[in-house]
């Protein structure tokens, strides 16, 4: 249920707006405020998904309401309502953070499209904040091996640029970590980092997911929806497992990279985007190209910088550091005192064949912390971590 606040001092216009919104969707919960002061008080006390706010009102005008709210709830989208003589002011409110403006008397289609787009944008902002909170930590690859030191040096050089990066390596090696680290060290770090797992999205939905769609583009498209490229505007989009993307979607991604523009499914309107693209795959893309499964021109667009993440078996010297790191993190998560691993236990773990790479090592460390003794011994490893 989307909660909308209409702030308008003219009762007739306020009633029209409420009527349009409530008749458009039963998922809109609409509240009213008869002037700016009442509206500002409501915004302090309650959370809204969207605000429709008149510009010229007694006691407190719409610009003041917008500025006051953006200080405490910057994520709330505002659509300003302007009279004929307020257009310059309406345009200026967009510089202050308003999503858009509509003129009086409101055009039905313009109003509803603006409301839908503003609510979509709010969803994306909320999702971005959730993801930032989830990943709002310092990303760094743990290890001092030659391979990891080389990757760290590359990240330091590449992060400050807008160069596209293609990260390759087996599953579980930390490709996602490399992508986040590049974003975190870049000038785009304040912008969104949007992740798309291309392997997890059905091929018939990948284009809609990436580029969005307009209402009626396909059977279940009951409203306009922004895609991941739009959500990542000003930041970074991480296309994980890009080797699993359909050739049709690859063609559209190529166009987006060439022109910095996307088109929503079902629309011929170009939307300009400013996005850095980082991609990752566990596949041999040159082999995929030879077999006609991946576009060579897209490969060369993506692989401006190529980062190869090694398998854990190729960096066994890092395993003691990884065990220490995971032990500390898991103990924090569980609220327990960190256990120690005996030298023989660590040596035995270094000798294992880690087909699942770092992901598998973390699971084994967690199992040993839970099931092992006060100090994890060689016997614990043989008992609980046996392959």
State the end-to-end CA separation. Answer: 49 Å
Roughly how much helix do the residues carry, as a percent range? 40-55%
How would you classify the helix and strand content by structural class? alpha/beta
Number of domains: 3
Radius of gyration over C-alpha positions, nearest whole angstrom: 26 Å
The biggest sheet amounts to: 5 strands, parallel
pLDDT averaged over residues: 90
> Care to count the β-strands?
16
Number of helices: 16
CATH superfamily of the largest domain: P-loop containing nucleotide triphosphate hydrolases
CATH class of the largest domain reads Alpha Beta
What is the CATH topology of the largest domain? Answer: Rossmann fold
CATH architecture of the largest domain: 3-Layer(aba) Sandwich
Query: Numbering strands along the chain, what is their spatial order in the largest sheet?
Result: 2-1-3-4-5
**Uncertain regions: pLDDT < 50 for 5+ in a row?**
none
Net shape: elongated
Strand content: 15-25%
